[in-house]
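$ fold --in a.seq
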Amino acid sequence: MNNTEIVEVDKAKVFIIVEIIEYVPNSVVIKTIIKKTTGNVSVVSFDTGEALSSKISPFDTFIQVIDGKAEVNIDNASNILKVGKSIIIPANTTHVFKANERFKMISTIIKSGYED
């Protein structure tokens, strides 16, 4: 099950990113904290055994794991990310997220700058 919502975070106030999102049994939870036409920043939690189906984005996506350990497959190449590790998913590549154990991540998509 996927749960998606937009969360208002007070600007110019300190917050703890890992506390913005919770784990929900048998679910992937997505909370978008910045949403603009030029891109968005979301925090995502995956319960153990959950995955997002294969997708292709027309934009580069920066991923940083903030809790647990994630498996990110990019064009069928497996990458294991532990807390503090990051990866950039190139635009127009197939990618899949798998939770062999539960994890939380930040996903940042920049939608501008591709016209150059």
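$ fold --in b.seq
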Amino acid sequence: MISVEVENRSGVAVDEAGAVELAGHVLRAEGVDDGELGIAFVGAEEMRGLKRDHLGIDETTDVLSFPIDGRDELPEGVPRALGDVVLCPQVVGDEWRWPLAHGLLHLLGYAHGDDMTARERELLA
């Protein structure tokens, strides 16, 4: 079973239920049927700080991923911690579906490139 915890620290209304639904769809389509996932919606300044602190780039972005276990083999009985996807509604606006799918694929080990872009299109079709 996939457990999704959503936190909205952005100061704007977001479609939390839609984000959970899309996350479940993407993860199941990728063959992940158990694990814990965090989704956070944050404001522009918090996102800028996260990108600066973790990537050394001082600018706001749409989505960041913080993977933990990904698809790694885990000992029996150890719950899978997929990681966290952080979205900035002030940057993504109403177009949050693609950045969320993008962030989720990063949690699962995808890197930027044609395969990732093609997979995003398939998942969002």
